[in-house]
Amino acid sequence: MGEVTFTFVGTGDPLGSGGRLHTCFHVAAPSGRFLVDCGATTMTGLKREGIDRNAIEAILVTHLHGDHIGGIPYFVLDAQLVAKRTAPLVIAGPPGLADRLRRAMDVMFPGLSDVEQRFEIRIVELEAGRRTAVGPVDVTPFEVVHACGDPPYALRLEVDGRTLAYSGDTEWTDALIDVARDANLFVCESYFYEKEIPNHLDYRTLWAHRDELECDRLVITHMSEDMLSRLSEVELEPAADGKRIVV
Ligand SMILES: [Zn+2]
Ligand SMILES: [Zn+2]
User: Fold this and answer.
1) Quick one: the chain helix, strand, coil %, rounded to 5?
2) Which residues contact 41 (CB under 8 A, 6 or more apart)?
3) How many separate domains does the chain show?
4) How far apart are CA 195 and CA 237, in angstroms?
5) Ligand 2 centre distance from Cα of residue 23 (Å)
6) CATH code at 195?
7) How far is C-alpha 77 from the geometric centre of its chain's CA atoms?
8) pLDDT digit of tens for each residue in the chain (247 aa)?
9) How far apart are CA 161 and CA 157, in angstroms?
């Protein structure tokens, strides 16, 4: 089966807490390489980690907030002008992805969405509950609870016999039990330590549900300054920019 390497390229919240980059993970598997979420600082993170961006076959996104998709216009711009990409790129995420990306590109770089790229960009809008092949990985989205204008997902990713699960932003929902079931690795938001707010998950709530999450390894991410200041008190494993896990 070969090794699957999961790199935490960016593990921050949208506001740069702790000096961390926006959310982005890179998965290198024998079958291929892909990104999971692509926040606005993704290009900085890829260069910091020495990751070959032309080898990335797909970008999968959980939901359509800037700290999860804001790096895509830069990725496309770089691929066209600097990296001279020729391989096709698949971008997959919730319904509304194609329209939101077109508008994001037009705001950030007027005309970019109309430029004929040297490489094919294929946009796939994933249906909740339906397992779909995206480049090298099989993706099953689970709808979660996070107001962002379009349906937000947690993603279950199956590649080369490994199962990776990831929840971006959501308040607690039993969908997290389903997405994490039998996963080798589950990466989950822990925004505040104990403050409960709509749309986001706090550490205390996640910890209270730990026994229901039947995953081999659980790593917390997307942490605010409040959460980062309490890391010495937590029992769950925290993510950090540049951390690598061989699954
Ligand atoms: Zn969000
Ligand atoms: Zn976020």
Assistant:
1) 25, 30, 45
2) 10, 12, 21, 22, 24, 71
3) 1
4) 19
5) 7
6) 3.60.15.10
7) 20
8) 689 999 999 999 999 999 999 999 999 999 999 999 999 999 999 999 999 999 999 999 999 999 999 999 999 999 999 999 999 999 999 999 999 999 999 999 998 888 888 999 999 999 999 999 999 999 999 999 999 999 999 999 999 999 999 999 999 999 999 999 999 999 999 999 999 999 999 999 999 999 999 999 999 999 999 999 999 999 999 999 999 999 9
9) 10
**Residue 131: CB partners within 8 Å, gap ≥ 6?**
138, 139, 140, 158
Ligand 1 centroid vs 68 CA: distance in angstroms?
7
Length of the chain: 247
Taking a 5 Å cut-off on Cβ, the residues next to ion ligand 2 are 67, 169
The CA 116 to ligand 2 mean position distance, Å, reads 31
Domain that holds residue 213: 5-246
Q: What is the pTM of this model?
A: 0.97
Ligand nearest to the CA of residue 150, numbered in listed order? 1
CA of 11 to the centre of ligand 2 (A): 10
